[in-house]
Specification:
This protein is of the alpha/beta class and 327 residues long. The chain folds into two domains: 113 residues, Rossmann fold; 175 residues, Dihydrodipicolinate Reductase, domain 2 (2-Layer Sandwich). It is 34% helix and 21% strand. It contains nine helices and 14 strands. A nine-stranded mixed beta sheet has the order 13-12-11-10-6-9-8-7-14. Strands 3-4-5 form a three-stranded parallel beta sheet, with helices on one face. A hairpin with a 5-residue loop joins strand 8 and strand 9. The longest helix is centred in the last third of the chain and has 20 residues. The protein is globular. The two termini are 28 Å apart. The chain binds nicotinamide-adenine-dinucleotide (NAD).
Length: 327
């Protein structure tokens, strides 16, 4: 659903999938339905628009709907997909508020369908290698994580810079990778945050659309994270994790790859895989076989990220350290 830039990347990658394939299309642009329909060999009976896609409930060829539209649309579209009885994969961020996220979880639970979130890094081999080493105790007791995620947002007219469609600014879009990283690298969830926002271009980054946010997270073990989220700094794609016995460094850490990194023991060196292909095959295994992935990609994990995002925004506004309470 939503045949834009990222959907194009996902659909291309899915051509190499073993267990997932594009089986239907939802778009508001008739020409795209024709062009994509021909490319991916989708019969007209499996092409829908935003008005009529509820009829997917009667289409046995479709198991799941992947929502890849601007953030503010996810809430209604996921709920409608669930009501059509289909499993749902939703792009990040799950929604533009924790309240919406909870409603989406409830709708999927009520409909008895799975809700997964497009957190592709959670299937990436170098990332999983760091997690494996951490679980094996290679880094000892963890002390610190640093996550720096950002790019320069170009076109001032894009939906990402429109609060009504994006729900926020860099934090919702790219800073969420640093939040994710802090959680899966340290292997625990934060309990407090202290955050500051810096805005150098209030014309481009209007009220409610954050340009750059620096935030610190505190964890129950005493570990801390220092993170940066930006729409106005380039070459920002770097993770660093350190503990009493060793460290891991990844740079690039969340781009489309190849992901590169090393630890105190040497290069991570896991081969590059196309993230979206791996993600979709792994998600097929979650949907069809009830597989449990090493790192969760479920709706609750994504709802918790929204709760952390809201605490970061609260801290920016209050100028104080704010507690984080997760579902
Ligand atoms: P995009 O602008 O390239 O595509 C958005 C699509 O939604 C377009 O086809 C557009 O026509 C459609 N759309 C439907 N209703 C719309 C409306 N009311 N206003 C504007 N567009 C509308 O954006 P994108 O980069 O593909 O991002 C889509 C989603 O995917 C976002 O939630 C984004 O965060 C996510 N995303 C995830 C990754 C990732 O690596 N996981 C990467 C890029 C984007």
């Amino acid at each position: 659903m939503g045949l834009g830039g990222y959907a194009e990347r996902v659909a291309e990658a899915m051509q190499q999938c073993e267990r997932a394939k594009v089986a239907g299309l939802i778009s508001g642009t008739p020409e795209k339905l024709v062009k994509w329909g021909q490319k991916y060999n989708i019969p007209e009976s499996s092409r829908y628009n935003y008005d009529n896609f509820d009829a997917i409930k009667d289409n046995p060829d479709i198991d799941a709907i992947y929502v890849i539209t601007p953030n503010a649309l996810h809430h209604d579209q996921v709920i409608r997909s669930a009501r059509a009885g289909k499993h749902v994969i939703c792009e990040k961020p799950l929604a533009i508020s924790a309240k919406e996220g909870q409603e989406m979880l409830d709708a999927c639970n009520n409909a008895g369908v799975k809700l997964l979130v497009g957190y592709r890094m959670r299937f990436e081999p170098n990332t999983l290698e760091v997690v494996r080493l951490r679980n094996a105790g290679a880094f000892g007791r963890l002390k610190f994580f640093q996550g720096q995620c950002g790019f320069v947002a170009g076109d001032p007219k894009q939906w990402r810079l429109n609060k009504a469609l994006a729900g926020g600014g860099s934090l919702m879009d790219i800073g969420i990778y640093a939040i994710n990283g802090a959680r899966y690298m340290l292997g625990e969830d934060p309990v407090w945050v202290s955050a500051q926002e810096t805005k150098t271009d209030p014309v481009k980054f209007k009220e409610g659309v954050d340009e750059t946010i620096q935030f610190e997270l505190g964890f129950p073990s005493g570990a801390v994270a220092s993170c940066l989220s930006s729409y106005n700094i380039s070459h920002l794609d770097r993770f660093f994790l350190t503990g009493e016995k060793g460290f891991a460094e990844m740079w690039p850490s969340t781009g489309y790859g190849p992901i590169k990194g090393r630890t105190h023991q040497g290069d991570l060196g896991k081969p590059h895989t196309v993230h979206q292909r791996t993600q979709m095959d792994e998600m097929a295994a979650i949907i069809f076989d009830n597989n449990t992935p090493t790192l969760p990609v479920d709706g609750l994990t994504a709802l918790q990220d929204l709760q952390i995002i809201e605490a970061i925004y609260r801290s920016c506004a209050s100028g104080k350290r704010e507690p984080i309470k997760l579902s």
